[in-house]
Amino acid sequence: MMKYAVTGSTGRFGRTVIKTLLETVPASDIIALARDTEKAADLLPDGIEIRPGEYEDAPRLSDSLQGVNRLLLISSQPGAPMSRPEQHQNVIDAAKDAGVAFIAYTSFPHADTSTAALAADHQATEKALRNSGLAFSFLRNNWYLENDFNVIEAGANGQPVIYSAGQGRVGWTPESDYAQAAAKVLTMDDPKAVYEFAGAPATYADLAKAVSEATGKTFPVANVSDDDYTASLKQAGFDTNTALLFTSFQQLIRDGNLDEKSDDLQTVLGRPLLSLKDAVTRLIKK
């Protein structure tokens, strides 16, 4: 009997993974790991076993992973007292101690060679997994369409769409596509070691056009300097650190870090991806 475990199970990504697993796996074979087990009990379907899953607590993680065959390690959020590589190492070590055979890890595009600041933690985790002796798959997820909801919302309301990424292209697709693919890889008999998951590459000008077509709205679209982009975010109410963080995303896009042409995602999903216009339409209706 194969047992599957999912970390970060109360987040939107984790919940979608579990929902997808339930299409082919009995609830009794799914284990949800969560920092807040009471929250998980409220959010997750009945029949799934819920266990503690704090990345910082390695001994408890080892207990929680007992009996698990295949694990999805959803990367943690940055900014915690313990670094992400340390947190992820705890999970990997606990998995080894518990006898887990396979780990799928949500990573960053071309994490092994990328020079983007966002890639560093993922690069360290991929190295740790390669050195672990465990079987693994790196799920190198491109950009969630939801990451740019503020851009989509602005255009949908007839407000200016402003960016500084120039002609940089992004592999936008809904977060649910990445989560569904993660579930499918977790249950595969012979998954690849590396997947570059992405939608069709497109620019912010393409995204603005998709918003206009989806909503029938017209609005100004402007590629501006990084300084002006940061200033526009601060004017919109973001604090300085957040504005600078979002500007750094524009820089990594401009530098080509998310310009990916790969059919891995649609191959794993077994279906074509939505067009950018259709994906935008669906997101706006949520």
UniProtKB/TrEMBL annotation:
InterPro entries: NAD(P)-bd_dom, NAD(P)-bd_dom_sf, NmrA-type_oxidoreductase
Gene3D superfamilies reported for this sequence: NAD(P)-binding Rossmann-like Domain (3.40.50.720), UDP-galactose 4-epimerase, domain 1 (3.90.25.10)
Pfam families cross-referenced by the UniProt entry: NAD_binding_10
UniProt domain NAD(P)-binding: residue ranges: 8-161
Protein name: NAD(P)-binding domain-containing protein
Species of origin: Secundilactobacillus kimchicus JCM 15530
